[in-house]
Amino acid sequence: LRDRDFWRPVYTELLGTTFFVFIAAGIVTISGNVAMEEMLPPRLVLIALTQGLGYAMALYACTAILEGGIGFFNPAITLAALLTNNIHGAYRWKGSPTRGALFLIVAQVAGSILGGVMVLGAVPNAMDGEEKVGATVVGQTTSTWMAMALEALGTFFMTWVVLSELSRRDVRPQSFVGPLAVGTGYAALQIAFLPYSGASFNPARSFGPALCAQQLSDLHVHILAPLAGSMVAAIAFALTVRGTSHRSLLGTDPAEVAYKYD
Questions:
Q1: What is the CA radius of gyration of the chain?
Q2: Which of 48, 70, 122, 251 has its CA 20 to 30 A from that of 133?
Q3: pTM for this prediction
Q4: What CA–CA distance (Å, rounded) separates 172 from 239?
């Protein structure tokens, strides 16, 4: 724990998650003030593009700094990446990758809260309307079970894209291709699912704004469903990637993986 290299990903994850949550929740709040909370097509596209591009920009900045090994500002994806680490080898901490991933998740939760506090302090009327502080909310005509199904499905696809990117040997960490693919996928899923489930796909995206807004009624949907979707994606990925087995899903020793950026 005294190793500076151990803490660099944690600090970066805190910074990246704070930035992403501020952008994501901020655009929902600001556009809601202008559009009087109505989810009209122009507002939907604006929210989706802003969140997708903001996510891609944060990912690019952090991966370029750390050369891999980040948690993607999403606890669900962090857990999936940890479970499949023996396939892609992105988590290369000395000692236990599990401990490092847990610290990343703590940083994501803290960044989520900081991002929500920043929206609360920076955006006028942030506590007005249904989506207070940009919190993710389930649509009024959508049942809880349907919202959970959509959140799990969206997180499944997001996790699959991330794991596929981690496993590519021909992309350097400074490349914008991977972050752009993840951000574009996130924007597309936002357009498809936001009016129905809130389109979080990320417990960190939902937790901080919901806590700051004291709007916790839908929080279980945006925590449990993404975790379930990412775990299914991890299992499916481990079973379909060439040269893997059931045992590789539990492997956490990056020394066993020939994965280097060279």
A1: 18
A2: 70
A3: 0.87
A4: 25
